[in-house]
Structure formats: structure tokens, C-alpha cells
């Protein structure tokens, strides 16, 4: 397990659930992403104040048959990837954010 | 279009999700374009509260792509209130405007709100030609200034160049202008009938010779040989194809709350002032009828040699009187592309006459429609990307 990370959806995105997936588009460059069912759970729970570790424990491990350390490892890789594309904010401190406007913060 | 976008569209079709909506905020406009298909009076637009409520409903229904258009969107004093709410609801917002009213403050706000793209009508690189089409002196200068300001804000801007008799030779100039401005370019060689069914503006359409010039311009269409290849006739797969996304994954909402399959397909399918958006989408008999139509159900087009490759617009066919019939404007285009006439084209040119004009109106008294009313993936967490 790593130190707690806080994750929040960027304001610079468009997003919508489609079935059990989520479409996310970066407002920065119109790149479209689709998140699978588990990634969608993390996306929906990324409120900036709940630690990623907690999200994984409560939302992922309770619903999917996966070991906590594997789930956290995958979740960290996911949020790092999404942060690289500017659609998720990652911090070691709680974040305040709301979708719907442009921000360059990461 | 990327494979990921197509995949999402296919999934939306399977799940009956309205992935894309065009919402016209107003038909009022500060320009009076000679080819416009709208009247410009306010016959009772939805107010701010109605539109904000509709946005909530559309988000809940799964709408992702939201095109906000008009009329001229900046004629609405509440435009930014609507746009802000749309972005809070995380729609992928595209704007269509003439940009005449966009100055630094407006451009900055549009940029701050993370609008995906802005499409701006530009008719010519020559101010006098553009202004003669918009019937608004000085509009070219103001529009181009608006384009510059939006581009400076880092927005994706496209110059939309509708061709008609008055500007048929100007598209090269507009393309160069777009490049100079840092904007994209798109051309549309089709003038469509007015939404009230009046077809008089079709006289502005460019002729066959000009259309052939556009379709044989490799800088516009890519591989000319492929684009203009003779048709081979529809095969079994083509006969089961859906005509387009109208009514399937997309629809249009007018400023008065009327829902149509598409802005170019004015089949009244419900009104959001009377019925919830999702109930119209799921249960409207009109939309459900549109959804049943494949090429196989079109008596003329299914037999036509162009059937598998034609750009036939079901809305234009509807405005000619039969949504299962041919769209004569697309027959003209197929002929211009390939030099091979469709059966409908031959018939029309043997005995030319105007198609029957439908009694279409912009404000419909639509009767409310009565509604009839998870596994773990192989890889745990996956995110895939593609440029739209």
C-alpha cells in the first residue's frame, strides 16, 4: 500500500455514463476515453476528499472479487494515466473541485 | 471518426440512448441570411427555467454531445447561464454561432467553460459577398474578429462554409482564410427547405457543374477516384443499414420544446413542455417509426444503383413528402459525384416539377404521447483513449 492519494474529476472534461462504462472527453484536446465498469466506479467516487485507498476498499473490493492490494495498484495506475491526460486531479491533500469548467491544475 | 467513437455510438444504439442532441435556444437572429431555413420571430421560446430543467433531463437520459445552436445563440440574454449549467452537467458542448456578438469577454468565458468546439458560419473570404448573404453590413469583419478571439482562447473553431449560387467559387478563399486564422474548415453544398415547408430557397442551390467541381476537388474530398466511383448497388448488408443517426442516437429540440429526429427532419415527435424528454425519446410513435426504417423499406432507393453509397437524408425525403422515399437533392449529389443518374433523378428530369410542399410548421400542437412503459471485466481497470 502507498500513501493516501486524493483524486477528483477535472473540471476540464465532458463525461457521461453509457451502460456500465463511462465516456470521458478531455476539453483540452478532445481526446475521448472510455472507462470500464470498475474504472467507472472509481471515477464516480472521485470526490476529492475520499482517499483513493478508501474508494478502492469501499467501492471496488466490496463489489468485485479482487484482492485489495491488486485493486489499489491498478487504481493508482489508472488515476496516474488519467492525470497525465488532464482529466483527473491527483494530490496527497484533499481536493475541492466540481466538473464544468476549465482548469489546468493536476 | 475514430473506432472508439463508433463503438460508443453502436453501444448507444443498442441501449437506446440519445447520445447527441441539438438544442436551438432561439430562432431569433441578428443576421438575415438569404438561404436560412428559419423564420426569426419569437413564437414562445422556452424560458431559462424550462431550458435548465431540460438540460437536467437530457443529462439523466444519457445525452453526451450537446450542440447549442439557433438562430443566433447570443440573442439569448441567459446564454451563459445555460452554457454554465450545461458544462456543470458535463455535456460535451459544441456551439454554432455567427460570432458577431463575441468580443473578448465572451470569448474568454467560452474558453473558461471548456466548450469542445465552436462552429461559425463564413460564406466568403470577400467581405462584400459574405455581407450580401447575411444582409448585415459589417458582419464579415465582426465575425472574423470573433473567430480570432476564440482561437486566441485556444478553442477549436471551424469555419462552416455553406455554398450557394452567390458564393459557389469562394470556397478556396474561405479555406485559406481558415488556415490563416488557425481554424478548421468544413463545406456544405446543400441548401435545405425552410422548416415550414417553403422550398423557394432551393433556387439558391449551386448547379450540377459547380457541384461536380466541389466533388472532384481532391483537397476537399480526399481520394477523388474513390469518392466519385460508380455505385455497385446495395448488397444484403446495405439493405439492412440504418439511414443515419436521426432518431436512433440523436435528436433535435426546438426553442419551443418540440422534439424532432433531427434539425433537418421536422417530424413532430413530442414536446418537452408536455412530456418528459426521456418519455418522448423512448415512446414517441414518430421516433419509433423512424427507427424501423432501413434501406430495405424504401421502395425506390432499395432498387437504386446508388442505394448502398448515397448520402440520402431521410429528413429531406420527409420534407419532399415521404420519409421512405428518395431525397431528390441527394439524387442530384449522387449524379454530380458519379455521372450516373438515379431512377428518381431520371424521372424528375424527364418531367420536372416541384415536389409537393408539406404543411410543416415550426410550432406544433403535439398531442402528449402516453408512455408504455453488472460482471467483472477480464482486466480489472481499463481506460481507452481516442481523439474524437
- Residues in β-strands, percent of chain B: 5-15%
Indicate the radius of gyration of chain A in whole angstroms.
Answer: 13 Å
The tally of beta strands of chain A, per DSSP, is: 6
Taking strands numbered 1, 2, ... along the chain, how are they ordered across the largest sheet of chain B? 6-5-4-3-2-1-7-8
Number of helical regions of chain A? 3
How many strands, which pairing sense, and closed or not: the largest β-sheet of chain B?
8 strands, mixed
Helix share bin of chain A: 25-40%
Which segments of chain A are poorly predicted (pLDDT under 50) over 5 or more consecutive residues?
A: 98-106
Poorly predicted ranges of chain B: 356-380
**Mean pLDDT of chain A, nearest integer?**
87
Percentage of residues in helical conformation of chain B:
25-40%
CATH topology of chain A: Outer Surface Protein A, domain 3
The largest chain-to-chain contact, stated as pair and per-chain residue counts, equals: A-B, 43 and 44 residues
**SSE series of chain A:** EEEEHEHHE
State the end-to-end distance of chain B.
6 Å
**CATH architecture assignment name of chain A:** Alpha-Beta Complex
Task: Kindly report the spatial arrangement of strands forming the biggest sheet of chain A.
Answer: 5-1-6
Radius of gyration of chain B: 21 Å
What would your notes on this structure say?
The complex is a heterodimer of chains A (106) and B (388). Chain A is α+β, with helices and mostly antiparallel strands and 106 residues long. Chain A has a single domain (6-91), classed as Outer Surface Protein A, domain 3 (Alpha-Beta Complex), CATH 3.90.930. Helices cover 34% and strands 28% of the residues of chain A. The two termini of chain A are 22 Å apart. Chain B is α/β, with parallel strands linked by helices. Helices cover 36% and strands 11% of the residues of chain B. Chain B has helices at residues 3-15, 48-61, 79-88, 104-112, 127-134, 139-152, 171-181, 208-215, 218-221, 224-227, 236-239, 277-283, 285-292, 314-320, 328-338, 343-350, and strands at residues 20-24, 65-69, 92-97, 117-121, 157-162, 184-188, 250-253, 259-260, 383-387. An eight-stranded mixed sheet of chain B has the order 6-5-4-3-2-1-7-8, covered by helices on one side. In chain B, α2 (48-61) packs parallel to α3 and α8 (208-215) crosses α15. Classes of the chains: A alpha+beta (106), B alpha/beta (388). The interface between A and B is large, with 43 and 44 residues. β4 (31-35) of chain A pairs antiparallel with β9 (383-387) of chain B.
Amino acid at each position: 500500500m502507498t500513501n493516501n492519494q486524493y483524486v477528483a474529476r477535472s473540471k476540464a472534461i465532458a463525461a457521461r455514463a453509457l451502460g456500465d462504462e463511462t465516456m470521458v472527453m478531455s476539453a483540452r484536446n478532445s481526446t475521448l476515453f472510455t472507462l470500464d465498469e470498475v474504472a467507472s466506479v472509481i471515477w464516480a467516487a472521485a470526490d476529492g476528499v475520499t482517499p483513493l485507498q478508501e474508494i478502492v476498499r469501499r467501492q471496488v473490493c466490496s463489489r468485485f472479487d479482487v484482492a485489495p492490494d491488486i485493486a489499489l495498484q491498478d487504481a493508482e495506475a489508472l488515476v496516474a494515466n488519467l492525470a497525465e491526460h488532464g482529466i483527473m486531479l491527483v494530490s496527497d491533500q484533499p481536493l475541492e473541485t466540481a466538473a464544468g469548467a476549465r482548469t489546468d491544475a493536476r | 471518426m475514430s473506432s472508439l467513437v463508433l463503438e460508443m455510438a453502436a453501444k448507444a444504439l443498442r441501449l437506446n440512448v440519445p447520445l447527441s442532441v441539438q438544442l436551438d435556444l432561439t430562432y431569433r437572429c441578428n443576421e438575415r441570411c438569404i438561404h436560412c431555413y428559419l423564420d426569426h420571430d419569437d413564437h414562445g421560446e422556452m424560458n431559462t427555467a424550462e431550458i435548465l430543467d431540460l438540460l437536467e433531463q437530457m443529462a439523466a437520459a444519457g445525452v453526451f454531445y450537446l450542440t447549442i445552436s439557433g438562430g443566433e445563440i447570443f440573442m439569448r440574454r441567459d446564454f451563459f447561464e445555460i452554457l454554465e449549467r450545461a458544462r456543470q452537467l458535463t455535456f460535451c458542448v459544441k456551439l454554432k454561432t455567427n460570432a458577431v456578438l463575441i468580443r473578448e469577454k465572451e470569448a474568454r468565458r467560452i474558453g473558461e467553460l471548456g466548450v469542445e468546439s465552436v462552429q461559425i458560419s463564413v460564406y466568403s473570404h470577400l467581405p462584400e459577398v459574405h455581407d450580401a448573404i447575411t444582409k448585415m453590413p459589417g458582419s464579415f469583419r465582426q465575425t472574423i474578429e470573433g473567430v480570432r478571439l476564440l482561437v486566441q482562447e485556444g478553442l477549436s473553431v471551424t469555419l462552416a462554409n455553406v455554398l450557394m449560387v452567390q458564393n459557389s467559387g469562394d470556397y478556396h478563399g474561405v479555406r485559406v482564410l481558415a488556415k490563416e486564422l488557425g481554424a478548421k474548415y468544413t463545406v456544405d453544398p446543400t441548401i435545405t427547405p425552410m422548416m415550414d415547408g417553403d422550398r423557394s430557397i432551393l433556387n439558391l442551390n449551386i448547379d450540377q457543374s459547380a457541384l461536380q467541381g466541389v466533388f472532384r476537388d481532391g483537397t476537399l474530398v480526399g481520394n477523388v477516384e474513390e469518392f466519385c466511383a460508380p455505385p455497385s448497388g446495395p448488397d444484403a448488408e446495405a439493405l439492412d443499414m440504418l439511414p443515419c443517426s436521426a432518431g436512433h442516437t440523436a435528436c433535435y429540440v426546438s426553442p419551443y420544446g418540440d422534439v424532432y429526429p433531427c434539425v433537418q427532419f421536422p417530424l413532430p415527435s413530442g414536446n418537452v413542455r408536455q412530456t418528459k424528454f426521456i418519455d418522448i425519446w423512448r415512446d414517441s410513435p414518430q421516433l419509433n417509426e423512424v427507427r424501423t426504417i432501413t434501406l430495405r423499406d424504401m421502395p425506390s432507393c432499395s432498387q437504386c444503383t446508388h442505394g448502398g453509397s448515397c448520402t440520402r437524408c431521410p429528413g429531406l425525403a420527409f420534407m419532399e413528402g415521404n420519409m421512405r422515399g428518395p431525397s431528390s437533392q441527394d439524387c442530384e449529389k449522387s449524379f454530380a459525384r458519379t455521372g450516373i443518374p438515379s431512377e428518381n433523378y431520371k424521372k424528375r428530369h424527364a418531367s420536372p416539377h416541384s415536389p409537393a410542399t408539406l404543411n410543416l410548421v415550426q410550432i406544433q400542437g403535439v398531442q402528449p404521447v402516453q408512455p408504455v412503459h453488472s460482471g467483472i471485466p477480464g482486466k480489472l481497470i481499463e481506460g481507452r483513449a481516442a481523439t474524437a
